[in-house]
Amino acid sequence: MPARLSATDRLLPVWILLAMAVGIGLSVFAPAFGEFLHAASIGSVSIPIAIGLLVMMYPVLAKVRYSDARAVAGDRKLLVSSLVLNWLIGPALMFALAWILLPDLPEYRTGLIIVGLARCIAMVLIWNDLACGDREAAAFLVALNSVFQVIAFAGLGWFYLQVLPGWLGLPTTSAEFSIGAITISVLIFLGIPLLAGFLSRLIGERRRGRDWYENQFLPKVSPLALAGLLFTIVMLFALQGQQVIDQPLDVARIALPLLVYFAAMFALGFATGKLVKLSYERTTTLAFTAAGNNFELAIAVAIGTFGATSGEALAGIVGPLIEVPALVALVYVALWLRPRFTAPTGALATPRRVAERTNA
User: Fold this and answer.
1) Contact 128, 285 (CB under 8 A)
2) Please, which residues have CB within 8 angstroms of residue 67's CB and are 6 or more apart in sequence?
């Protein structure tokens, strides 16, 4: 597999580390740039980060064969597994890790619990694609997560911050979550690129045919995904790099439960996929959608509820700073595990289909 990846993809960890370094450099040596980024927001949505995420997600969603994605709805094993991992196990695991590892830091603990409630709907598409997961399944699962996010986020926040701690005799936290802010986050970070990707394929195939769309159009827009990813990372570190430098011990305390969480959820996703006999492609998609989190929403909720300088906001900010390198590492773990699965079968996993994913 590594031999088939392009030089750019093989060096992805290097590009990400360089992007982190550039972002931190900007935050330290050009503080005015960070102030500009803070000002360039509409409500709780950072315009530069939103642009980076939209550019990053568009090529991935443009590659999805939406006519094939309908078949994912019939895969009950995948859907039930995803819902259980994302909305039952994930929040409960983060709650447990936050209380076990941060019992003396209530603000960071609350911030981590909020991160655990925000299920991934954005960057997971990049990690899934790099690990040769099922694009159609990923698009369907992040859309499903977005619906549950709007419906269940506020209720789960109330349960994990007030009800469950009260049952266990632990201190409770009062917080109110804006359903409007959650809905806006979902519409911006998933709705816009999803609609753009769908329309691109629909119009492109109708006018020029699938062969032109997949062999000429997609190769031209595919590099935008990496550009958007690196731009987003630079913006994140430029915005928050100074806080990371000023509070290294606090960042390390927050990072520990996050690392355990990412590894545990990814392992549970792979184990579940293997147990219910999913293909490698769908098991990979299940694992990454379970391990990732919607850091855009978590940060927006933490800042909107507790303030931009709060410990809850810092915990949300550290989330993506740890998630990006952690999930890049898990891409390589997934590719290492790939030979342990039987050869994929079925219309959505023909040898030609697998080759397309690898080359993409």
Assistant:
1) yes
2) none
Q: How far apart are CA 184 and CA 150, in angstroms?
A: 9
The pLDDT tens digits for 326-342 are: 998 999 999 999 988 86
Coil, strand or helix at 118: coil
Q: Which residues lie closer than 8 Å to 53 by C-beta, 6 or more apart? A: 122, 123, 189, 193, 228, 232, 296
pLDDT digits (tens, 9 = 90+) for 13-56: 788 889 888 988 998 888 888 778 778 877 666 788 888 888 88
Residues 6+ apart with CB under 8 A from 124: 138, 142, 288, 289, 292, 327
What single-letter DSSP state applies at residue 72? G
* Contact of 323 with 158, CB cutoff 8 Å: no
Report the alpha-carbon angle 228-324-322, nearest 5. Answer: 140
Q: What's the angle, vertex CA 1, arms to CA 324 and CA 140, rounded to 5?
A: 55
Distance separating alpha carbons of residues 54 and 323, to the nearest angstrom: 19
Task: Please list the residues that pair with 293 across neighbouring strands.
Answer: 119
Whole-number pLDDT of residue 232: 84
d(CA 129, CA 197): 15
Tell me how far CA of residue 92 lies from CA of 34, 165, 299, 311, in angstroms: 35, 12, 19, 21
User: Which is it for strands 41-42 and 45-46: parallel, antiparallel or unpaired?
Assistant: antiparallel
- pLDDT tens digits along 46-104: 788 888 888 888 888 888 888 877 778 889 999 999 999 999 999 999 999 999 999 99
Rounded distance, CA 312 to CA 328, Å?
25
